[in-house]
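Researcher: Here's the sequence for the chain we discussed earlier.
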Amino acid sequence: MMKTNILILSLLCSGLNAGAQQAYLSREEYRDKVEAYSQILKQQHLKTFASTEARKIASTGFLPQIDITAEGTANLNHLDQWNSPKGDYHPYTYQALATLTQPLYTGGSLIAQKKVAQAEEALDQLTTELTLDQIHYQSDAVYWNASAARAGLKAAATFQDIVQQQYDIIQDRFDDGAISRTDLLMISTRRKEAELQYIKARQNHTLALQKLNILMGSEPDAPIDSIAEIDIPTASIIPLGLDDVLLRRAEYASTSVNIARSEAQRHAALSRYNPQVNMFLATGWDTGITYMGQDVPHTPVVGVNVSIPIFRWGARFKKNRQQKAYIGIQKLQQSYVTDNILEELSAATTKLTETEQQVKTARENMILAEENLGLVTFSYNEGKASMADVLSAQLSWTQAHTNLIDAYLAEKNKGEHFTTLDMLLLDLYTGVGHLVKYGAATTYVCRGNWMECIKSTSLPVGVMEDAGCECSSKKYYAGDLIVMVSDGVLDSILFENKDDYMHTLLEALKDEEPETVVEAVIQDIRSVCGKRLKDDATIIVCKVMKNL
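Model: Thanks. This is the structure I predict for it:
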């Protein structure tokens, strides 16, 4: 009995493991599910089917056509004479005509119409291919955004644990009377900030999973146990030359088809000015003499119909020039598309190199931030560092995590870059300012010999839908210097502690005008990095002045 129970338990565990394995959703599987569910792709398939049928219809124009026409009349006032003898009055007449028509020469219109239909079918097929590429790109972006959101949630949970552990230590020391209440209040504030950060990360993660489900046709809250981690290695991408890329791009192939279609449309438009030759065979029956009830069969007739346009006031030449202008537009469009693809190719090649370096730097920064947090925390516990140092190290740690996730996401999205937002709203009457950040670089507030570093732990705009921003509200006073910089400024600083470098630099410039501060900072950083800035370097300096 015990063996049977163990066997059943083993089978049950195996079933659970199998279920857990089935719950894993790979990027390739997600692509297939999104492709199978996509309503846009289904619509495009129907459009392609319709254009294929239109091409088949155009081909029937070369075949013989059979038409039957018939008509009849009846005098309702003399219906009693319906069956009167032949030669007498009959209250009805009828006529029937059967015609077999065969186009011999249509001025090239049938051939042109067939080529137009073939071009439109090819365009719809290329549009289907382009739609499929867009769906794959969208599914990959949503998939990796969800993976990044999950990584952000894990990082937020880890950060919350780090702050909680430090809070427990400080709380115990405060209870023993070893430290002041100031440190306890500072770490308590940071604990609430970490809790709020976790709530935002959880919300982003939930929204990302809902979008992941909806795109593949599942219920928004359907469970997804696991997806690929954002830090998994990606296959190396070998850049192609422009000629190879053009052969793979559906939008470029569409321009060639559009040129061919415009040529066919030109021939179709000009065919109406060419001779038209049709052969026909006709036969029929009618009453012969009206209302006499005599059935007269027609003798079959074979004939040829010829139509030759002679004079149209130069319409043919004008139509030809008009259609050639349309062809010229399509050729210019092809050149425009080629330039766009070349620009995208150049940018993609550059971004691939940049993202590789970005991931490498972000990893190194993460290692340094973890080591720095450990050393500062240890030094504080030993009484050799201040609480401000601990809070700064914690911010550096969480920002390093955010930067690393952002770098991985840019790598997964083939070098796609996102936009950061750094905005200051300052009330000139009260002096209260609100600093809004979406993944932006550090902002420095200088007041005398004191400097505050306001950092961002949120992701940039566009990384994921409805990603939360960070807003720091505080009152500013006369003489305060607010320095907002882009990441290119900080990335160009080669020293390990960039904030200390900026503190030293800005402390010497605290009494200068904003224009002088901007010029001095740019010149100093350019000298540090050997005049080779890592990225675009933008600096905004705002000095609060009292209006007398």
